[in-house]
Target: Glycosyltransferase
Amino acid sequence: MSQPELMLFARQPIAGEVKTRLQPEYSPEKAAEIAAFMIRATVELAVSAWPGDVMLYVWPGTDHLLLRRLTSDFHIRLVPQAEGDLGAKMLDALRAGIARKGSAAVMGCDVPHCGWDVIDQANSWLARGKNVLGPTDDGGYYFIGLQEARPELFEEMPWGSDRVLETTLARAEKLDMEFQLLKKLRDIDTAADLWLVAQKYEPLRQFL
Model:
């Protein structure tokens, strides 16, 4: 059985350009440091828990010291994200992964606390031919795994709103697609998110 691919999505941790919603509680430099920490923690978790290939899809490019260190430390492949909005970027990556392995998933780097069991469950469902979504508390999702990359799930989506998950599921129903749902998690966008997650995820407490 071919193992699905897992493609992690991240922005380069550049001060002022990443994790801007952590401001003003955190400076742009500290927000970038937190972003870098979450990327590394997510990569480390993914390569230990996902039995198939793990890739890191990065925007706006792959030339960054942290990224070079990740390829050296974890032997993962870096891939620049496609042009367009988040939907276009994910659709492009999923099409490529499905073409290579038959099924594939995209996961953000905003939930380094998701745990080995969540990734293992996602892989198990995906490898058995299921579609998988990992809901977030704010109405989005942190994980999507597909057997077929349908544009209807990504085009003209209200990204960043609290309607992403419900819209995705409504469109899937029209397409006669079913999803298995992972545990709902809080993704880390704001200082309040960081504080709440750090109460149970010790590695983040260094930033409180």
In short: The beta strands are 5-11, 54-59, 77-80, 104-108, 131-135, 141-146, 179-181.
